[in-house]
Amino acid sequence: MNNLSGQNLGIRASSGYKAIDVVEEGEYTMFGDLRLPSLPSQWSVQQVMAWASQNEATPEILGLIEHEKLDGRTFLLSIVDDFMFPSLGHRIRFRNALDSLRKINDETLARLEETAPPYATSSAA
Predict the structure, then answer these.
(1) SUPFAM superfamilies of this UniProt entry (predicted)?
(2) Distance between CA atoms of residues 111 and 125, nearest Å
(3) Could you tell me if 38 and 27 are in contact, meaning their C-beta atoms sit under 8 angstroms apart?
(4) How do residues 53-98 score in pLDDT, each as one tens digit?
(5) Would you give the DSSP letter of residue 41?
(6) Which residue did the predictor score with more confidence, 96 or 118?
(7) Three-state DSSP class for 109?
(8) Are 48 and 72 in contact (CB under 8 A)?
(9) Reported pTM
(10) Are 23 and 30 in contact (CB under 8 A)?
């Protein structure tokens, strides 16, 4: 469980291909038409596939994500050159969307660290 519960942070991000409203609602975020966990690095393989399918991924890319079991964490570590695209335009739009997704993940992690309770040490009596 993260510290975003109950907050509506109203973040907007652009995927490069189309404007996507990203509105955080508790532990889930609307990524365009998809309601996914707020932290992309915690996505399942199926959630990565759903996001990728709306952001220029070809059937071959979706198959690769599934076959290689790219969950959110591993997907965010991938680079666009890991995938084949039918055109330069597809490649550029997918790269922009993936860059935006990484930024959203980094900003969410930073907010979680800011709102985390301080580390408590136990002192011996």
Answers:
(1) SAM/Pointed domain
(2) 35
(3) yes
(4) 999 999 999 999 999 999 999 999 999 998 999 999 999 999 999 9
(5) G
(6) 96
(7) helix
(8) yes
(9) 0.72
(10) yes
For 1-125, strand residue ranges (E) read 12-14, 19-25, 28-31, 34-37
For the packed helices 59-67 and 45-53, what is the interaxial angle rounded to 10 degrees?
A: 170
What's the CA angle centered on 55, arms 93 and 106, to 5 degrees?
Answer: 85
For the chain, give every domain's residue range.
12-105
Burial of 13 (0-12, 13-18, 19+ CB in 10 A): middle
* Percent of the chain clearing pLDDT 70 (strictly above): 71
Identity (one letter) of the amino acid at 64? Answer: L
**Contact 91/78 with Cβ under 8 angstroms?**
no
Strand partners, 12: 21
Residue whose pair of structure tokens reads 């985390």 in the numeric block: 116
Note the pLDDT of residue 87: 93
Name 34's bridge partners. Answer: 31
Write the CA distances from 73 to 23, 29, 41, integer angstroms. Answer: 21, 17, 4
91 residue type, one letter: R
**HSE-CB of 57 using CA atoms within 13 angstroms:** 20
